[in-house]
Design a protein that fits this description.
The complex is a heterotrimer of chains A (about 375), B (about 130) and C (about 350). Helix content of chain A is about 40%, strand content about 20%. Chain A contains 14 helices and eleven strands. In chain A, the strands form two sheets. A nine-stranded mixed β-sheet of chain A has the order 3-2-4-7-1-8-11-10-9, with helices on both faces. A two-stranded antiparallel sheet of chain A has the order 5-6. In chain A, helix 4 packs across helix 14. In chain B, strands 6-5-4-7-8 form a five-stranded antiparallel β-sheet. A three-stranded antiparallel β-sheet of chain B has the order 2-1-3. Chain B is built from two helices and eight strands; from the N terminus they run H-H-E-E-E-E-E-E-E-E. The chains are: A alpha/beta (about 375), B mainly beta (about 130), C alpha/beta (about 350). Chains A and B meet through helix 6 and strand 5 of A and strand 4, strand 5, strand 6 and strand 8 of B.
């Protein structure tokens, strides 16, 4: 497999984009990425999106976007892995270039969630329909089950969960594309409306519209273009049982552990060699559990680490979610995985503005589907 | 709710019928074609125990439209005496009296309705014993 | 010998007090409870209906009978609140309990006596030699119109009886039914709530038919009230069963054991059947039980049971109805009750 680099990125603001359709936002993001990359064509296109059929009645997004981006007849495919659709789309693009099948590939992600569908219902299709959702469980409900188990087993506290939301909002306030640009206090998080005990409104990522895209190319093409790029030094993916009740443990996400191990091996590095991580904080508890399963903190100590500020930008040991994470940046499901790559890229190319992590050399993006049934991890390195 | 889709799951939802791998003895609920543990393809039908304990639970206060009139709704994971875990509601629950580890029993209840004119869908829920 | 080989009841945990309903509609709570001799009633959970109640009651009956469900040849559920207008409640019950598919199934309706009909037909199939076991269930989650007198009493619950000839716990000695066209209480297709003829539901309906069936039954059996240890009558409120018993020559003591209505309400097709289970829970070998149901429209089914030695073996095998009536109650306010009973118009 040959070396692959991210050579250009583009995204829309994330939020309630009432006036714009799924096509509008994807084309905007893709166009920006292509322009940023400085290429005059792409060989193929991957679109990550969880449920365009249920959200806006449109499937066949690969074809739709290739058409509206004006790049017919290139091959275009929609990739789906629930909330890891974006990461999975990026992985497909990476593999296509790494294998030599193509030189320049666009990987984008998009979700248009505000057009009137029952969002709770649609998102629940990422869980086991007949044996979880049939009984009335929701996504906040599933993560609440994980939270309660984690609190019971390791003593993780309500305050520690809230600390994650506070940090991510502080970071999001510095992100011009974030859905929420205001900070929140610990009291506000702990006092927000209860959604599924113990998770409250401010523990949960929001409903968002948005699109993000990156252009990946072989290292040769990147070097010839004579612009900034970041090399993809690891791409890994793993799966776990669809139902939470079938997992080996309720407090460890094996798909994350597995994908992380493969990623570290591929890049030949350890967690200590990573300078920042974009993690899948669909709910505050997810960030805590993932921080342990990625190997940054001892099992059970993720909550403590968050509360102690070890994952903050300024005095942190390992900044998590400098973009604001899914919580503050927003979570247009299919776009998230790509937006994570964009944040890592901007950090590594010193374009992160007031969110900049000093001397950022290597960054990780961890994208996850459902209650952890799929996980895609990428590690990028500055040129 | 497409009626055929509902009808297929009746042995599981009404009678807790599971598949026990003949080769390695692992019990799968619902039954499967391939045992993830030993890759075996032969199973015998077994009926799960209807007694177990509450492994974890949450009180759902914001539910999908279908369940919106039933909140606060307690949903949890129950580990049955055969070691099999299921996700299910805890019925007639007095929310502040629930604790991880409590003994529960599965009973027959109406789980959902397909709107005003569609079919009624039944299945198991847990109650504290 | 043919009779009951297994019996079981089920009552939901929710309750609402008559005084709460009275206050809701501006009625005098004292006058209501005194007049009806009714203090509280059972309310089904949002996830409970005639089918779920029938399944749980039958589970208890199977625990007592200890037979293979596949040996049951017929299953009948009598109710006036079958969840489907077209699709029998018992098809769901048989699949839930592993009965069938070689089984006959039907739904019965006849206001409050649909349960005893199911029992009567189940018994008749075993008596005729057609099959070894048959199941008859009476269960309801009846509705009372808001602000109407029936709102105080319409409640939820049910009882199941497996009839057989092997290890009978209560032999059926005689039966008798008495029926005529009497429009005392009815519900037209599509209507949410039933209507009734007020005081017309008393003497011309309830009393006439119960006494008609009871008198004929006693004559048939050549017995008199004092021969019985227990008497069970349909219980629309606390007063009526005591009054009809008195008119027939039964004492308060004979009726008391099954007199669950002041705390259970009127479980319609489950009324006299659940009362019968309360009696069976404490009956002794040799006891004679007199039971007459009543269903508006109108008719009564009468039974004379003789308890056998086997009763001692089965009483403890499943929960008793008085336990369900008295323990783990969850009280609702009127708003919660209206929500549970779908009396609130939703935006559907």
């Amino acid at each position: 497999m040959r070396d692959v680099a991210v050579i250009g990125t583009g995204m829309t603001k994330f939020g309630e984009l009432w006036g714009r359709s799924i096509k509008d936002i994807f084309v905007e993001a893709a166009e920006r990425a292509i322009e940023d990359a400085g290429v005059d064509h792409v060989d193929s296109l991957y679109v990550g999106s969880m449920s365009p059929g249920l959200f806006v009645g449109q499937e066949h997004l690969g074809a739709v976007m290739a058409d509206y981006l004006g790049v017919n007849p290139i091959p275009a495919t929609r990739v789906e892995s629930a909330c890891a659709s974006g990461g999975a789309a990026f992985r497909q693009a990476f593999l296509e270039v790494a294998s030599g099948a193509s030189d320049i590939v666009l990987a984008g992600g998009v979700e248009k969630m505000t057009d009137g569908a029952d969002v709770i219902d649609v998102l629940a299709t990422a869980a086991d329909q007949e044996y979880e959702v049939y009984h009335g469980i929701t996504f906040p409900g599933l993560y609440a089950l994980i939270a309660k188990a984690h609190m019971h087993q390791y003593g993780t506290t309500r305050e520690q969960l809230a600390a994650v939301a506070v940090k991510n909002h502080r970071n999001g306030a510095k992100n011009p594309n974030a859905q929420f640009r205001s900070e929140v206090t610990l009291e506000q998080v702990m006092g927000s409306t209860m959604v599924a005990d113990p998770l409250r409104l401010l523990d949960c990522s929001p409903v968002s519209d948005g699109a993000a895209a990156v252009v990946v190319a072989s290292l040769d093409v990147a070097k010839k273009l004579n612009k900034s790029f970041a090399r993809v030094i690891a791409s890994a993916q793993a799966s776990d049982t669809i139902a939470l009740h079938s997992r080996q443990s309720l407090t460890t996400l094996n798909a994350v552990v597995n994908a992380a191990q493969k990623a570290y091996k591929m890049a030949n590095i350890k967690p200590a060699d990573i300078n920042l991580v974009e993690v899948h904080d669909c709910f505050t508890i997810a960030e805590i559990v993932v921080s342990e399963d990625l190997g940054f903190f001892e099992k059970g100590k993720g909550g403590e680490a968050a509360a102690q500020g070890l994952t903050s930008i300024d005095c942190g040991r390992i900044p998590f979610n400098t973009s604001g994470g899914l919580k503050a940046k927003g979570h247009p499901v299919g776009a998230t995985g790509i937006a994570q790559i964009i944040e890592v890229y901007e950090q590594l190319t010193a374009k992160a503005g007031s969110r900049q992590v000093k001397n950022a050399r290597r960054g990780m993006a961890q994208n996850m589907g459902g209650s952890g049934a799929s996980c895609v991890i990428h590690i990028l390195e500055a040129q | 709710m497409i009626t055929a889709r509902y009808h297929r799951e009746i042995p599981q939802r009404y009678r807790l019928e599971a598949g026990k791998c003949v080769k390695c003895g692992q019990i799968h609920f619902p039954p499967r074609r391939i045992c993830p543990k030993c890759k075996g393809k032969t199973f015998e039908t077994v009926q799960l125990s209807d007694e177990g304990k509450l492994v974890t639970f949450t009180v759902v206060r914001v539910a999908s439209d279908k369940f919106s009139k039933q909140t606060p709704m307690v949903v949890g994971i129950v580990e049955l005496n055969d070691g099999v875990r299921v996700t299910t509601q805890v019925a007639d629950a007095e929310v502040d009296k629930l604790e991880v580890g409590q003994k529960v029993k599965l009973v027959f209840r109406k789980i959902q309705e397909d709107g005003r004119a569609g079919i009624l869908c039944y299945g198991y829920k847990a109650i504290l014993v | 010998m043919v009779g009951i080989v297994g019996y079981g009841a089920y009552l939901p945990r929710y309750r609402i007090k008559a005084e709460v309903i009275a206050r809701q509609w501006g009625a005098d709570p004292e006058a209501v409870t005194r007049g009806l001799q009714l203090y509280e009633k059972t309310v089904p959970g949002q996830d409970e209906d005639t089918i779920t109640i029938s399944v749980e009651a039958t589970k208890n009956a199977l625990r007592r009978a200890q037979i293979d469900p596949k040996e049951i040849g017929a299953v009948y559920i009598g109710s006036e609140s079958h969840p489907y207008a077209v699709k029998p409640s018992a098809t769901i019950l048989i699949d839930a309990l592993g009965i069938g598919p070689h089984v006959h199934v039907a739904s019965y309706e006849f206001a409050c006596k649909a349960g005893t009909e199911a029992m009567y037909v189940a018994y008749s199939h075993v008596k005729s030699g057609e099959m070894n076991y048959a199941l008859g269930v009476g269960a309801d989650t009846s509705q009372g119109a808001p602000g109407d007198a029936l709102e105080y009493s319409a409640s939820a619950g049910g009882a199941a009886f497996i009839m057989g000839r092997d290890k009978v716990v209560a032999e059926i000695l005689h039966t008798h039914s008495y029926t005529s066209d009497t429009p005392d209480f009815w519900r037209r297709e599509g209507e949410d709530y039933p209507r009734h003829g007020g005081r017309f539901t008393g003497d011309p309906a309830y009393f006439k038919h119960i006494m008609g069936a009871a008198t004929a039954l006693l004559e048939k059996a050549r017995m008199s009230p004092k021969d019985f240890r227990f008497a069970v009558f349909h219980m629309p409120n606390g007063k009526f069963p005591m009054e009809v018993g008195k008119r027939l020559g039964f004492t308060k003591e004979q009726i008391e054991t099954g007199w669950l209505v002041p705390w259970m309400g009127n479980t319609y097709s489950g009324s006299s059947p659940t009362a019968l289970t309360a009696v069976l829970d404490v009956a002794r070998p040799g006891d004679l039980i007199f039971m007459v149901s009543f269903g508006s429209g109108a008719g009564s089914d009468g039974f004379i049971f003789r308890v056998t030695d086997e009763i001692k073996n089965v009483q403890d095998r499943a929960p008793r109805v008085r336990q369900m009536l008295e323990e783990k109650k969850i009280y609702l306010n009127y708003g919660e009750y209206a929500k549970f009973r779908r009396k609130i118009k939703l935006n559907e």
